[in-house]
Write a structure and sequence with these properties.
single chain, alpha+beta, Immunoglobulin-like, 6-stranded antiparallel β-sheet, 4-stranded antiparallel β-sheet
Length: about 140
């Protein structure tokens, strides 16, 4: 324990700062959509909660159509729900894949969003012009 405290001290961090960050990977696929979408598209996102902020980063590829939008929705696994937060992606030349950067996708965690995260009731959808309701989806685990 003394070693851990010394490392925190040397890094200029308190134990509360280190323990207040949680990160999960979210896999995105067409079979997670309601109803499922037949697509080769995939994606992987990293969702991080740090203190009162939410950060999203990652990448996606092989959309059937051109990139349309990315949103965090409210909804339990296997259910559809309303859009809550629009995410910003840097799209590749073909417009069928791209990257979400943490710096462009950081948000204040308001109480309702924090509660939804704790209950596992948020998911991410990436849409294309061929699948405007969503081509790939991934549920954010309880955080």
């Amino acid at each position: 324990m003394k070693t851990v405290i010394l490392i925190f001290f040397l890094l200029g961090l308190s134990a509360g700062e280190v323990l207040s960050q949680t990160t999960y990977e979210v896999n995105l696929a067409g079979y997670n959509m309601i109803p499922p979408v037949r697509t080769a598209a995939t994606g992987i996102l990293e969702v991080t909660v740090h203190n009162d902020s939410l950060f999203v980063s990652g990448e996606f590829r092989d959309l059937r159509g051109q990139y349309w939008a990315t949103y965090i929705h409210y909804g339990k696994e296997g259910e559809t729900g309303n859009r809550l937060i629009q995410l910003r992606a840097d799209v590749n030349e073909e417009k069928n894949g791209g990257e979400l950067k943490k710096e462009r996708n950081s948000f204040e965690l308001r109480p309702a969003i924090r509660r939804a995260l704790q209950e596992g009731n948020l998911y991410v959808v990436i849409s294309s012009n061929r699948n405007q309701d969503g081509e790939i989806r991934g549920q954010i685990p309880r955080m």
